[in-house]
Amino acid sequence: MKAYVFPGQGSQYSGMGKDLYDESARARELFEEADQILGFKISKTMFEGTDEELKQTRITQPAIFLHSVITAELMGASFQPDMVAGHSLGEFSALVANKTLSFKDALTLVYKRAMAMQKACEHTPSTMAAILGLDDKVVEDCCKAIDGIVVAANYNSPGQLVISGSIDSINEAVEQLKEAGARRALVLPVGGAFHSPLMEPARKELEEAINSTQFSQPICPVYQNVTANAVSNPEDIKRNLVAQLTSPVKWTQTMQQMLADGMSELIEVGPGKVLQGLVKKIDRAFPVSQGDWK
User: Fold this and answer.
1) Total structural domains within the chain
2) Of 231, 151, 160, 162, whose CA–CA distance to 199 is shortest?
3) CATH number at residue 99
4) Are residues 73 and 49 located together in one domain of the fold?
5) Same domain, 205 and 113
6) In terms of DSSP bridges, do strands 222-223 and 230-231 run parallel, antiparallel, or are they unpaired?
7) Is there a domain that residue 265 lies in?
8) Percentage of the chain with pLDDT > 90?
9) Is there a single domain that holds both residue 213 and residue 254?
């Protein structure tokens, strides 16, 4: 069974999507439509913007979404998913790929999500940290013992977990986890505590937008971050998408479940190769590839 997976924040780079635009009339149409939907030239920022500009949440999220979704569209008849998943923001790309959401509706939601998250970040100074080389339970127990908000946010692969919370609590957790034997424990250059209770204001804002958007019956199941299980019911997909903002991304568990359900090949669609690397940490010999649109 072919699984198509879509990356989240962190995969952006300056010049992203320029090759798509230059070589495909269909890509040009979609980029121009995106500029109109958003009300500014995101295509120009993607093609010419600095790394600093692309790091802004309100740019990063729609930019990665556009690169992923347009690449999938250009793959044409070769794009035949049996199952899809996306890491955090990538879940919206996955929902366009399996026909749950239209291009326009998904891009509108992605932008609302990005703006709501940026607002929540500005409201409470917060951050995230990557912890390498410890069992998940050790990290979880450390977070629970700290006074203040700090939670497991991204279960990326065995031995790689990202925590999220207030700045003081994250700094304290990093020190404690180093003492507990973490191979690395480093604060990440992000604007806020994604996938933590500090995103509650953004969750409320996004819930309203999601509930007023048309979700269709998908052509194949999406393995959602919140449950790590296959979901096909549009109402369940909506609920999980809302919960995702304040819940951890269970990517390790998602990959394990997809493997258990018969995934025989993983194809990453969008910028970068991060997700291919993560599944290799679960099964080094597993066949992975980059979605090829040419």
Assistant:
1) 2
2) 151
3) 3.40.366.10
4) yes
5) yes
6) antiparallel
7) yes
8) 88
9) yes
Strand order in the sheet with 2-6: 230-231, 222-223, 83-86, 2-6, 265-268, 288-290
Q: Is the model's pLDDT at 43 over the cut of 80?
A: yes
Whether residue 192 lies inside any domain: the answer is no
Give the neighbor-by-neighbor strand order of the sheet with 126-132. 150-157, 160-166, 126-132, 184-187
Supply the pTM of this predicted model: 0.95
Other beta carbons within 10 Å of 251: 27
**Domain around 135:** 125-187
Question: Are 290 and 7 a contacting pair, CB within 8 Å?
Answer: no
User: What span, in angstroms and rounded, lies between the C-alpha atoms of 171 and 165?
Assistant: 10
The DSSP symbol for 217 reads P
Q: Tell me: the pLDDT tens digits for 106-165?
A: 999 999 999 999 899 888 889 999 999 999 999 999 999 999 999 999 999 999 999 999
Would you say 109 and 206 are in contact if contact means Cβ atoms under 8 Å apart?
yes
- In whole angstroms, give the CA distance from residue 278 to residue 261: 18
Catalytic residue annotation:
88, 195
**Does any domain span residue 86?**
yes
Tokens of 204: 């409320």
CA dihedral 26, 96, 37, 16 (to 10 degrees): -60
CATH for 177: 3.30.70.250
Q: In this structure, what token pair is assigned to residue 8?
A: 């989240």
Residue 30 maps to a domain: yes
Whether residue 163 contacts residue 128, with contact meaning beta carbons closer than 8 Å, is answered with: yes
Angle among Cα 131, 55, 48 to the nearest 5 degrees reads 140
- Residue 92 CA to residue 244 CA, distance in Å, equals 11
**Same domain for 267 and 138:** no
Would you say how long the chain is, in residues? 294
Answer yes or no: are the C-beta atoms of 193 and 169 closer than 8 Å: no
Shared-domain flag, residues 203 and 153: no
